[in-house]
Amino acid sequence: MSYRHGFGFALSPERLWSELEAVDQFERWWPWLTDLTVDGPGLAEGSVLTGVVSPPLPYRMRVRIEVVECERLHLISAVIGGDLTGPSTLRFRPDGDGTWVDATWTLEMQQPAMRLASRIGRPLLQWGHDRVVDLTVAGFRRRIEAL
């Protein structure tokens, strides 16, 4: 499953980054994420986040996110492992008074049943994936607009 999309946020890169550093709040912001643990300093190179993702479909995925490159205000590059595997990148750039974030990743299902389902029901799985992304962005926007 490949994804590439951009999102605008009404916070400067500094303020947006500061909010993203609150990894201990992720489960509160995003109800589809549970059992989150962080090994390392959080949003930094070498940190590993693990948790369970529950999209609006009847399956759950355990994921491991290893931050392999982190350039404050500009870039987060990670390798996803667990029930989903693949590279992921978030690029940040100023956009007027706000910030534009380009999100790209290519993920492959690892659970045998989900691998089969991805061959047969790719549109439904893509829909579930896209809803999780939409919920993530909407939840984060609600959080930062409340500041």
Element layout with pairings:
Elements: E1 2-9, H1 13-20, H2 26-29, E2 33-39, E3 48-53, E4 61-71, E5 75-82, E6 84-95, E7 98-106, E8 108-109, H3 112-120, H4 122-145
Antiparallel strand pairs: 1-7, 2-3, 3-4, 4-5, 5-6, 6-7, 6-8
What features would you describe in this structure?
The chain has 147 residues and is α+β, with helices and mostly antiparallel strands. It has helices at residues 13-20, 26-29, 112-120, 122-145; strands at residues 2-9, 33-39, 48-53, 61-71, 75-82, 84-95, 98-106, 108-109. The protein is globular. The protein has one domain (2-145): 2-Layer Sandwich (Alpha-D-Glucose-1,6-Bisphosphate, Chain A, domain 4), CATH 3.30.530. The model has no long low-confidence stretch (mean pLDDT 88). Strands 1, 2, 3, 4, 5, 6, 7 and 8 form an 8-stranded antiparallel beta sheet that branches.
Give the integer mean of the pLDDT values. 88
Q: Rg from C-alpha positions?
A: 15 Å
Counting helices, strands and paired strands, the structural category is alpha+beta
Oligomer kind: single chain
Order of helices and strands: EHHEEEEEEEHH
CATH class: Alpha Beta
Helix content: 25-40%
Number of strands: 8
